[in-house]
Amino acid sequence: MELFYGILFVIIIFGVIAIVYVYSYNKIQHFKSKIEEAESLIDENLRTKYDTLVNVDTLLMKLLKNDKHYFKDIDKLKKEDISNFDLDRKLTEYENLLKQIKIDNSKLADNKDFKELTNELKANDEKLAAVKTYYNRYTSDENELIRTFPSNIVSKMHGINIKPFFDGKNMQDDNVEDFKF
Q: Rounded to two decimals, what is the model's pTM?
């Protein structure tokens, strides 16, 4: 009879361990799929932003009647192997340049096509901000699981590591340059 209770006890312990393992693994995979979904949406919005800025550059050449490309080297961005974070920063630099051009050339504000493209950029920026927040939220949730027991054991077994937030800052290193503006 003691042997029966011993075997039953071992089976119950292994069952509980299996349930905890499966639950932790599935929770990590859930967050991982949410992060991948957000990455896909970020890619899509960055492509849209890039295409809109290229169209704005072409329109500026036409409206300001010169052959000058205002967004120098924007076409080279497609060929560069950079992260979404770096692409976002570069596109934001071009967008800031566009705001300055708009201030310097008041007649642009009256053009229907220019208004339409700047409104597209504004709407895209709102979507992009929302998706970045979504990405960072699920990244934070996944990182919390990776750090806490018992899911930290499951993540180590599967080689799942802490993921950086969209801003590219690694909170785990000693690099204080992450926090400079």
A: 0.81
Cα dihedral value 88, 93, 99, 102, nearest 10: -110
Closest among 122, 171, 125, 163 to 145, alpha carbons compared: 163
Sign of the C-alpha dihedral computed for residues 23, 25, 31 and 36 taken in this order = negative
Backbone angles phi, psi at 173, to 5 degrees: -100, 175
CB 122 within 8 A of CB 107: no
Angle formed by the axes of helices 84-104 and 112-147, nearest 10°: 150
- Rounded to the nearest 5 percent, the helix, strand and coil shares of the chain are 75, 0, 25
Least confident of 5-19, 27-41, 120-134, 158-172: 158-172
CB proximity list for 77: less than 8 A, separation 6 or greater: 50, 87, 90, 91
Least confident of 27-41, 48-62, 76-90, 126-140: 76-90
Whether 62 shows a pLDDT value over 70: the answer reads yes
Contact 69/56 with Cβ under 8 angstroms?
Answer: no
- Torsion of Cα atoms, 38 then 42 then 48 then 49, to 10°: 150
Preceding amide of 164 cis, omega within 30: no
What burial letters (b/e) apply to 105-114, b meaning 16+ CB within 10 Å?
Answer: eeebeebeeb
